[in-house]
Task: structure prediction
Amino acid sequence: MAAQLVNLVFDSALPRDLAGFWEGLFSWDAPFQPAFRSEAGPKRGKNRLHLDLASRSPGHQAELVDRALSLGARHVDIGQGPPEEKRVPWVVLADPEGNEFCVLEPREQYEGSGALASVVIDALDPERLARFWAAALGREIGVREKTIVGLRPPEGRGPWVEFLATKAEKRRKNRLRFEIAPRRGKSRAAEVRRLRELGATGQGPASQGAVAMVDPEGNEFSVLTPR
Result:
């Protein structure tokens, strides 16, 4: 039995302020919730997880970008070039704490996703990591391309989970990470054993109702008690 994705955790120096930014930017309609947790250290380097926001039209995309900038976001260049050159149709921004996110141009793939198109994870081996999370969450691979593998949302509604090829090794704890939980009536201990069989490893003992683990590429996540 697959686990369910419960929370997307943001480590934050000022969690209340960061939550206010994201609440002001768009209505969070994903089946999992954002959770902003206090973390003293500053952000270092590019995040391995980032969000892609969906847009309905070019005008709506421009509106989202303007709203983000007015709330404290800024343009960042992660290789796509400066915004005035328009080398790519999406817009790359960073929130007030430097967490990268993209405002996408309209794409047919995300018509059923809602406001959040996708959670994107950098991966040395996108196929391998996608297979792990597909089994962990009970999702199907819906896109398989040279540089990206995507997991289709359940019943076609909600955000995708996508794995984007990178050559950069993971060097530090992720500031964004998943919290998952067994389905109701299932055992957390049994779920932890199942995830280990799939390729996860334990990172620490249970604490505050969660077991800390890492996926096959070292991305941290937690297993909560059944919901």
Summary: The mean pLDDT is 94. The longest strand covers residues 4-12. The chain has four helices and 14 strands. Residues 170 and 218 are 7 Å apart (CA to CA).
